Amino acid sequence: MSAPKLPPLREVIAKHGLSASKALGQNFLFDEQLLDRIAAVPGSLEGEQVYEVGPGPGGLTRALLRAGANVTAVERDRRCLPALAELAEAYPDQLRVIEGDAMKIDPASEIGAPFHIASNLPYNVGTALAVGWLGGESWPPQWKSLTLMFQREVADRIVAKPGTDAYGRLAILAQWRCDARIAMPVHRSAFTPPPKVMSAVVHLTPKAQPEGVRMATLEALTAAAFGQRRKMLRQSLKGLPNALEALEKVAIAADRRPETLDLPEWINLAGTLDTLR
Predict the structure, then answer these.
(1) Which of 37, 98, 166, 196 is the most exposed place for a label (fewest CB within 10 A)?
(2) Sheet holding 115-120, edge to edge
(3) DSSP string spanning 223-245?
């Protein structure tokens, strides 16, 4: 079935008097070809369930619907709801819009089936949402993949390797039970209004979680270590019960700095810390 003919996004914006809200971290994308490329990152979406946060006037939403996805979109900006309602009319039974705060919504309970997450995330809550989707003790998750637009700095932190400036807590939490890659860079000029920084689309897919490691332990360990990343581990971890003993047990020198430990070392350290509690 051919996609319905829709007015250009700029016309939709003008018709509904929309402008990107700085307070909501909004930046709109109008380039339909770019949006189609983003929607293609997870692979075929024909008949798949997709969860989108912050659709705004519906740029990426259009691309996801064109790809055959059934989209559940969460939007807190009431100004955008009429434009999204028109899109829902153009794609009967393919788009459901929830007015609300994505930080307070559980997509698994809303969708009730395995789903992909694809979003041009609002800059002000993007990292918090991603950490939430990556977190929790239950694994594998109900989502099949994450295709997320971030500021380039955040994207680099997600895929960073040990010993680099970008390597830290976000890289460890993302990579310990996901495969993560930068799918494409996105120039600031692609947005309206152009943000001050470059962006990138990150793609994450779940992998098997290492056994004997709790997410809560890894979170606490990395929070303590990278909260004082310029300090040696003996200093940054001394306030975390049993952490120094765990360091000794796994033969990690206490005078190392947190960014020098690779992922297997962090996993080993977290698992050992759990055995000491």
Answers:
(1) 196
(2) 95-99, 70-75, 49-53, 115-120, 143-151, 199-206, 178-186
(3) HHHHTTTTS-HHHHTTTSTTHHH
Residue 81 CB burial class (10 angstroms; 0-12, 13-18, ≥19): middle
Has residue 127 got a pLDDT over 80?
yes
Phi, psi of 161 (to 5 degrees): -105, 160
Q: What is the value of pTM for the model shown?
A: 0.93
How far is the C-alpha of 124 from the C-alpha of 129, rounded, in Å? 10
Q: What percent of the chain has pLDDT over 70?
A: 96
230 vs 18, more confident? 230
Q: Which CATH number fits domain 9-206: 3.40.50.620, 3.40.30.10, 3.40.50.150, 3.20.20.70?
A: 3.40.50.150
By DSSP bridging, strand 49-53 and strand 115-120 are parallel
Taking the alpha carbons of 131, 132, 138, 142 in that order, is the dihedral positive or negative?
negative
From the list 111, 155, 112, 106, the residue with the least C-alpha distance to 133 is: 106
The two three-digit tokens of residue 215, written as one number: 């997410």
pLDDT class of 21 with cuts at 50, 70, 90: low
Structure tokens at 66: 């064109």
Cα–Cα distance, 96 to 226 (Å, whole number): 40
